[in-house]
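To the wet lab folks,

You asked to see what we're planning to order before we commit. Fair enough. Below is the target structure as tokens, and below that is the sequence we designed to fit it. If anything looks off to you, flag it before the synthesis order goes out.
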């Protein structure tokens, strides 16, 4: 099955949140990446990176994520007519495996953690294969940045942006988009959960560190370390790290479902926990953009 969609990702809704605006006594706008056909913003970066690798001669795409990154690559491969092979860690659940296979990708289970699957994927590359890293690739960031381009095109300008942070790919894309728009003084809030706080650890240490273990329900944030580029941004721009609990992340996701009728993963709930459960942090800021990053691993 092939498609003529030249972009793969869609231009997502950009909507006001009245309930959240009232909570923070400001103006909150939402970028609804949950509306992407693969369920998350990952489609932006993966679509862009896959196209570039295709131009460079790739004949097969290899991924190492059982989550939204693997799913986005599988979606892109199906639409470009390119085979996709995803090497998954044992922790990937049955539903996630099925979703990736539904997109026509083949899967293989290697390793107990994402890092083990990632190393196995890199070691398996043959001529004609392109490896799609889930967060550490400048091509990926270039694609993610388009979500800010879409906002800049509306003429609305935020004073602050809230993003969830896993490996930091979304953060890098958002920062790149802000630079491109000429918005150098936007405050960025980088939110993680207690069990996945690899960005907070890097900021504190002043270098990228590897957590001895990751835990909790925000599986899309569960990388044991962030990319170097995400830390480099914190040395140049105003970035505030915030850590929320699993309960706060899931509670925010539930409230968001009621307020905006959209189901999101706990990873996305982490970002939403800022206005819902820590609203004082956003008081007095004025205009805040929340990247509703989405995700298919929704907990009911
Ligand atoms: C990948 C992902 C994240 C984290 O993005 P990074 O680029 O790894 O920081 C957050 N939320 C969802 C839904 C994701 O799929």
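Sequence we intend to order:
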């Amino acid at each position: 099955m092939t498609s003529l969609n030249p972009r793969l990702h869609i231009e997502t809704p950009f909507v006001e949140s009245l309930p959240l605006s009232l909570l923070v006594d400001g103006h909150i706008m939402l970028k609804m990446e949950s509306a992407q056909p693969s369920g998350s913003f990952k489609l932006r970066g993966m679509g862009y990176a896959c196209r570039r690798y295709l131009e460079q001669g790739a004949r097969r795409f290899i991924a190492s994520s059982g989550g939204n990154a693997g799913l986005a690559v599988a979606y892109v491969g199906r639409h470009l007519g390119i085979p996709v092979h995803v090497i998954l860690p044992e922790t990937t659940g049955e539903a996630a495996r099925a979703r990736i296979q539904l997109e026509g990708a083949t899967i293989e289970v290697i390793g107990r953690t994402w890092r083990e699957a990632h190393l196995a994927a890199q070691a398996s590359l043959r001529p004609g294969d392109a490896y799609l890293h889930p967060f550490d690739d400048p091509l990926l960031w270039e694609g993610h940045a388009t979500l800010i381009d879409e906002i800049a095109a509306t003429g609305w300008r935020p004073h602050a942006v809230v993003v969830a942070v896993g490996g930091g790919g979304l953060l890098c894309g958002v920062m790149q988009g802000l630079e491109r728009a000429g918005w150098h003084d936007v405050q960025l809030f980088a939110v993680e959960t207690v069990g996945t706080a690899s960005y907070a650890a890097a900021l504190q240490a002043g270098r990228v560190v590897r957590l001895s273990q990751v835990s909790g329900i925000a599986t899309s944030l569960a990388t044991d370390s962030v990319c170097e580029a995400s830390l480099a941004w914190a040395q140049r721009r105003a970035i505030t790290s915030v850590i929320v609990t699993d309960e706060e992340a899931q509670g925010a996701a539930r409230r968001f479902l009621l307020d905006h009728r959209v189901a999101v993963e706990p990873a996305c709930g982490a970002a939403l926990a800022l206005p819902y459960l820590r609203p004082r942090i956003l008081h007095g800021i004025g205009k805040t953009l929340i990247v509703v990053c989405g995700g298919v691993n929704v907990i009911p």
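Structural context that might help your review: The CA atoms of residues 66 and 102 lie 13 Å apart. The longest strand covers residues 187-193.

Thanks,
Computational group
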